[in-house]
Structures are given as structure tokens and as C-alpha cells.
Amino acid sequence: MVKLKGITWDHPRGYEPLRAVAKIWHEKTGVEVTWDVRTLKEFGDYPIEKLIADYDFILIDHPYMGEAASNDLLVPVDTFLDKSFMDFQESQSVGPSFSSYGYNGHWWALPIDAAAQVAAYRKDIIDLLDWKLPRDLKQLAEAASKLPVSYKIGVPLCATDIWCVFLSLCAQYAGEAVFNEDGVDAETGAWALDQIRSWKGFLYKDSFQMNPIQMLEHMSVADDIVYIPFTFGYTNYARKKWQKNRIHFADVPGSGPGKKSSVIGGAGLAISARTKEISECVSFMQFILGGDIQKTAYYQNGGQPAHLDAWLDNDNNEDCSGFFADTLSTMEHAYVRPRMKGFNRFQETAAGLIHSAAQENGPTFTIMEKINKLFKSCCA
Length: 380
What we know:
By secondary structure, the chain is α/β, with parallel strands linked by helices. The chain contains 17 helices and 13 strands. Helix 8 packs across helix 16 (about 345-360). The radius of gyration is 20 Å and the shape is globular. The chain starts with a strand and ends with a helix. The relative contact order is 0.19.
């Protein structure tokens, strides 16, 4: 019996749908696919070259594409899949999800999970307060000032996630021109850092220590955080009976037609270049990325599908408080991070610099000089 092994991240959204679909596949074909997990931080930071010897499948973040292509770490899946299948995946792309896994003329993964930084809120509380969601960044501080003292705005700004918030703000300011040959555009980066610093007076006290899962978990069981302007969206927290309180999601403040909204996230399904079962891997990839599976079994088992049809499905939206419909505009205008070789090493260290700088008051342009010196050492 053929046995395949994959690795994903440690949240029900990350592993439950994979294990459920693997069970269906095993019953259908006799092929066994098992899934290990790693932490959310490891999902974004852990080098895939340390995983490819042990796993056939890897769920991966798109900034790794340059590293994978340059070092032959992953299978260029477009060379094993029919053009009709690739065209179908492209037609089902939610925003730039599909294109984000392409690099140097090949696709090193295909989107299996679609996400971006979106806004989250406790509808039950803001309706009671008659509190309006801020439409743009200028309204954010004003909206915070109108909250009773027991309610707060939170943003997950741990060292990993503050980087994505920073880049989301950069993208809102500069569109696609966030990076140039020297690194982050200095004016853009300074503006984004100043924005985050300006929030410190009204943010929930533990914001700089929390990641999206931790903050959404807290928001779903406690009543002090009522709004998050930037967090990676999780449909799970919008579903019936997931936690004590349902969270609703919306487009990020400042997003709109023709503008960049926030950083795209999600996950791509990649095949290790070391696998000895390429044909079986490709067959499973085609199955789990099929339209019917994405819209039904993948979503129904806690997943956040990467197919547009699944996002537009009325039953899915009814089940998750309109999550997909209410955040689709943000997805469609999302910003794709650079994918060149070395970028992941750069962003891991740069995130720590932004995390420290946002909590201090040093000159913003000095921080940008440090970040861009790092960029040149990692990505030049």
C-alpha cells in the first residue's frame, strides 16, 4: 500500500480538512496520506529544506517560492498537471492566490487555503453600543475614542505578525511599489511604522505579544476586544458553535476599488522534490483541489478553501456569518509579498526590528536604513 506523508500547521483549519479528505481518498484508492503539524510561526519561518526529506507534501507560504525554485526543493507542479487543470485553478483563484505561487515561469505550489489580513469584530457588542466600524485609517483613532473604557481595539502584533501588518500598511500607501532595488521604500516604511506607533494609546494591552489565533481565541471567549482592523481571517471563529461567541469579519479599513488592501496569506500545497511517489502525489493534489471537494468536504471539515466557487457558495456563507462574501474585496485587492531567494530569511529578521521599533520612539528613517541594509545582505 502506498503511504504519503504531509506537514501542515497546528490549527484545526490547517489539519482537519486535510485529514478528512485524506480519509475519503484512502477509501477511494487505498492510498494513505497522513499529516503532521508544526506551529504557526514554523509555518512562516521554518526552512523547507529541512522538511523535504521527510515529507511528500508541504503546506507552504508563498514567499518561499524563490528559495524553492533556486534550490530545487519542490516539484514544479505545472510540469505534471494538465493545462486544463492549471487553467481551472487559475479561474478559481481568490484574488492573487494562484499567481502568488508562481515563480520563474513555474508553479511550485497551488493554493489550497486562501486568506488575507481582514478586519474582525464582535457584532453583538458593537450593535449594542451602536458603534460603527471605521472605514479608513483616519477613522480608527476616532472610533477607538468612542468605545467605553472596558472595550478595546486589538491588533495581533507579535514579532511575526507585526511584519504583515506593516506590509499591509505599506501596500495601502504605495500599492505595488512597496519594495525597490534597495529594499522597502523608505518613505513608505516610515509612514507605516508611524501608523502602528500611533495606535499604542488605544490598543489592547497584550497586542504586541499575540498572534492572530491567540487574539481571535481571546475575542471569541472574552468581551474586551471588540474590533481588530488587521488580522489574518479564520472562518472557524465565524462558524456556529465554534466558541462561546461568534466573530464577524469585514474588509480592512482603507481598502477600496483600485487600491491595495492588505497582505495575502493562505497556504499552498507543494510536493517535495525528494518524493518517490510523484504520480500518487499529483493524483491526490488533483483530488483535494477539485471543485467539489473544495466547496464541500474541505470547507465542512474546518478548512478555508482556495476556490472562488467555495467563497461564493450561499450555504458556506450562511454557515460562517458571511465571512467569504464580507472579505472578498480585501482578497481581490491583496498585496503579494516578494518571493526572491533569501526573502524569507530577510523578513524573519526584519519582523523583529519592526516589532522593537514600533514599541519605541526612535527615528523611523534610521530603522528603515537598518531594514534595507538587511535586505541587501539577504536578497541581493
